[in-house]
Amino acid sequence: MAADIFGNLTEWGRVIDQLEQLKSDGLLDEHQAGLARILRYPDNWRLTEAGLAYALEIRQANDLLIAEATRIFSDQNAYLEVRLLATQALGHLLIHRPPQSGRSGYDPGRVIETMEQIANAPGAPRLKTAILESLELIREKLP
């Protein structure tokens, strides 16, 4: 995995340009640690939304990126739109996680359980619908 090239995240326009260039060059997978750092950055909603949108371009997801998308998805204080983006990202990332040899310590089954719990709890109908769609996609694609 390449070093985090995103630097100062307060320069969000430049970071989004870098993400677009990495997508164009087919190199987003190599920069998942930096993408996860973008998702952890709390001070710019544009970066969070862009990071989740670019997560949909990942071909072989790593656990760090899945964990950050899960954190945003699970945050009941987060605004609805970002939780919807995180739901979509999780559906994509989980089915693009390569099989792990040995034990990685990360359990995608727990992410699916969390998604099911949130879908069954009282909440926004749009979020429930998005979760159920992502879960259906995951169940179709995963063994």
Descriptive key words:
single chain; 143 residues; mainly alpha; 64% helix
Number of helices: 7
Share of residues in helices? 55-70%
List how many beta strands DSSP finds: 0
Q: Roughly how many Å is the radius of gyration?
A: 15 Å
Structural class: mainly alpha
β-strand percent reads: under 5%
Topology pattern, helix = H, strand = E: HHHHHHH
Mean pLDDT: 94
Molecular shape: globular
Largest sheet: none
Cα separation of the termini: 27 Å
Q: Number of folding domains? A: 1
Q: Point out poorly predicted stretches.
A: none
Describe the protein in words:
- Helix 2 runs antiparallel to helix 3.
- The chain has one domain.
- The chain is globular, with a radius of gyration of 15 Å.
- 64% of the residues lie in helices and 0% in strands.
- It is mainly alpha-helical.
- The longest helix is centred in the C-terminal third of the chain and has 17 residues.
Quick overview:
By secondary structure, the chain is mainly α.
Give the topology.
Elements: H1 12-25, H2 32-40, H3 45-55, H4 63-74, H5 80-95, H6 108-120, H7 125-141
